[in-house]
Design goal:
The protein is mainly α. It has eight helices and six strands. The longest helix has 38 residues. 4% of the residues are buried.
């Protein structure tokens, strides 16, 4: 995966794996240590022990080992006594794969090792759970199950605010629908005495078809209308027209 990319970019490198004879390894190390153009040293776990790579100041772990000690051995090839520069270590992990879930297992193993072997470690307590349930839990995590996480209070409050805002918008939408429904009912009563012609029936059918494109049923079967007004003046004009219609109808009732 890596070598084709390096060849494509004409980047010099050396490679050490289990197939390289012992007598040739020193030559590869010498080239990496002394040749300024050779800035990449590719190796498998065969290069994790017994090598002095102090010329390197960056370590990129392309895969994760099951044993955290192996990971430390890799880093120790460059981050060791005599190293005078800061060493950056990277772990390349593919999201949503076994590697991502393996991180939790590696972390638990590392905590146990620090608590047992390193007197200067800050780890003072390790939860040890034995039995089939713990084995089952670890296997589920490795196979893709998400471990239970603590409740994020900030996110919880944000979700509650979103729910409250959604409920408020629902109440406003319901009230607006009732208002428009009342206005159109008044209009129907005003013109109730007029004879309905074939032309008015055709116009009503066209208007219904056009309005139906703005309607969408909600989860309870109620029709929800969505319209876009060009600006605030259109809203003012609509409100005044509805007020005049409703006010005129009230006057007719008093006569």
């Amino acid at each position: 995966l890596i070598e084709p990319l390096l060849h494509k970019r004409a980047l010099p490198f050396v490679r050490l794996d289990g197939s390289v004879p012992q007598k040739k390894r020193q030559g590869l190390m010498h080239q990496f240590q002394t040749d300024p153009d050779t800035r990449l040293f590719i190796t498998t776990n065969a290069g994790a022990t017994g090598l002095n790579l102090q010329a390197a100041n960056t370590i990129i772990n392309v895969d994760l080992p099951w044993n955290p000690a192996v990971l430390e051995q890799r880093i120790a090839r460059a981050h060791r006594m005599g190293q005078k520069r800061p060493v950056q270590a990277y772990l390349l992990v593919t999201e949503g794969t076994l590697e991502e879930n393996l991180l939790a297992t590696l972390s638990a193993k590392q905590e146990l090792a620090l608590a047992a072997l390193d007197p200067a470690s800050d780890v003072t307590k390790v939860d040890l759970v034995s039995g089939m349930e713990e084995l089952k839990r670890r296997l589920e995590v490795l196979l893709g199950a998400k471990p239970e996480a603590a409740v994020d209070q900030t996110r919880k409050a944000e979700v509650e605010r979103e729910a409250q805002e959604l409920a408020r918008k629902e109440r406003v939408a319901t009230a607006g629908g009732q208002l428009l429904g009342a206005a159109f009912t008044f209009m129907g009563e005003i013109f109730a005495g007029r004879e309905e012609t074939e032309q008015t029936q055709q116009v009503a059918q066209v208007l219904k078809q056009q309005l139906s494109q703005c309607l969408q049923p909600d989860s309870e079967g109620r029709l929800r209308m969505t319209i876009t007004l060009p600006d605030d003046s259109a809203l003012d004009s609509l409100a005044r027209s509805l007020a005049q219609i409703m006010g005129g109808h009230a006057a007719l009732n008093t006569e």
